[in-house]
């Protein structure tokens, strides 16, 4: 074996191992430890706290960030079968929108209510969700039966771990922001995605097109 060839192959090998093991939030778009508005210089604290968490938001894990009180304009279209079950953002999506709708300051955590730094540019999803992929609606076998352009989530594998779409991507059977995104950058894929969207792999996980 030519040593030179081996040396060229090594970085590629470690790259693959690294991707396989997953990445972390450190250094990602959600690592706010170096932001001027975050005087704690910590990472998790902007979203979680070990004590005195806000238990008024359903399904929120030890939540420390102020929650949005906005009323959202919901996705609608004549061919959207999920219209029957769509609600105001629920579960983890409401947590995301507490920073991403642009109405609550980023440093409004741990009891702070008068922050002045708000999310900007493309990261500001806003309170009008009509131009975003629908969230907070039920995706079950009945929806897939009504729309043959969808895989049955209770039987179709997600390619994330070994489970089905229902088991690995849905929250109380609902599609949420975190169905597509990993808030902790667990995969290291751009835009905090849960799986690659090269050749639309993420979209084709659920859409049978
Ligand atoms: C930008 C906000 C944000 C930051 C920063 C953040 N989290 Fe989270 N975390 C969330 C949200 C939202 C959820 C619930 C939705 C989900 O699991 O995707 C969650 C869920 C969790 C859960 C429960 C579900 C699971 O994944 O096991 C744990 C444990 C957790 N976070 C730990 C941490 C730790 C430890 C840190 C710091 C190293 C951290 N988080 C930083 C937003 C954040
Ligand atoms: C504490 C506030 C906060 C919370 C809570 C939060 N985010 Fe973010 N997020 C941000 C900020 C600020 C940025 C922009 C960082 C930057 O300047 O690049 C961001 C960036 C992102 C990006 C873009 C990353 C990139 O590299 O393009 C995605 C995707 C994202 N967030 C998804 C989510 C999702 C999904 C949730 C809920 C599960 C969530 N965020 C919760 C504050 C938050
Ligand atoms: C059906 C999958 C899916 C859902 C649900 C979803 N996203 Fe995304 N999101 C994506 C993809 C894919 C991208 C990358 C877009 C690109 O490549 O241009 C993205 C990009 C982003 C970005 C980066 C800015 C940008 O436009 O490129 C932010 C911020 C973001 N999403 C936040 C959210 C929030 C908050 C929610 C819930 C309200 C959400 N996403 C729901 C798939 C999704
Ligand atoms: C976790 C599963 C899942 C993923 C991933 C996903 N979708 Fe969807 N998407 C759905 C479901 C379920 C619906 C609702 C379909 C319905 O009820 O008509 C939907 C709705 C839509 C609609 C609106 C359909 C209508 O009739 O108005 C479009 C367009 C769409 N998705 C495109 C995408 C694209 C593009 C991607 C990749 C960036 C993507 N989806 C990723 C599950 C998913």
What would your notes on this structure say?
The chain has helices at residues 3-21, 91-100, 141-146, 165-169, 177-180, 201-206, and strands spanning 137-138, 174-175. The radius of gyration is 20 Å and the shape is globular. The protein is an all-alpha fold and 209 residues long. Strands 1-2 form a two-stranded antiparallel sheet. The chain has one domain (21-206). Bound molecules: heme C (4 copies).
Strand order across the largest sheet: 1-2
Tell me, briefly, the overall form. Answer: globular
Q: Which small-molecule ligands are present, each listed once? A: heme C
* Order of H and E elements: HHEHHEHH
- So how many helices? 6
Largest sheet: 2 strands, antiparallel
Helical content (DSSP H or I, runs of 4+): 10-25%
Q: Could you name the ranges where pLDDT drops below 50 across 5 or more consecutive residues?
A: 1-21
User: How many strand segments?
Assistant: 2
- Gyration radius, in Å: 20 Å
Query: What separation lies between the terminal Cα atoms?
Result: 46 Å
Mean pLDDT: 91
Helix/strand-derived category reads: mainly alpha
β-sheet strand percentage: under 5%
How many distinct domains? 1
């Amino acid at each position: 074996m030519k040593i030179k060839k081996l040396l060229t192959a090594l970085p590629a090998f470690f790259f693959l191992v690294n991707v396989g093991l997953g990445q972390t939030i450190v250094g990602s778009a959600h690592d706010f430890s170096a932001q001027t508005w975050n005087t704690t210089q910590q990472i998790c604290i902007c979203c979680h706290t070990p004590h005195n968490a806000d238990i008024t938001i359903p399904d929120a894990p030890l939540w420390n960030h102020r929650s949005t009180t906005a009323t959202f304009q919901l996705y609608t279209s004549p061919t959207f079968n999920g219209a029957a079950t769509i609600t105001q953002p629920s579960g983890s999506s409401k947590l995301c929108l507490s920073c991403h709708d642009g109405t609550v300051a980023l440093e409004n955590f741990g009891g702070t209510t008068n922050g002045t730094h708000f999310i900007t540019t493309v990261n500001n999803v806003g309170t009008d969700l009509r131009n975003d992929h629908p969230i907070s609606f039920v995706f079950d076998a009945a929806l897939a039966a009504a729309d043959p352009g969808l895989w049955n989530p209770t039987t179709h594998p997600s390619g994330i771990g070994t489970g089905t779409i229902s088991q690995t991507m849905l929250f109380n059977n609902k599609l949420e922001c975190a169905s597509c995104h990993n808030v902790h950058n667990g995969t290291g894929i751009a835009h905090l995605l849960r799986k690659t969207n090269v050749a639309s792999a993420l979209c084709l996980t659920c859409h049978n097109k």
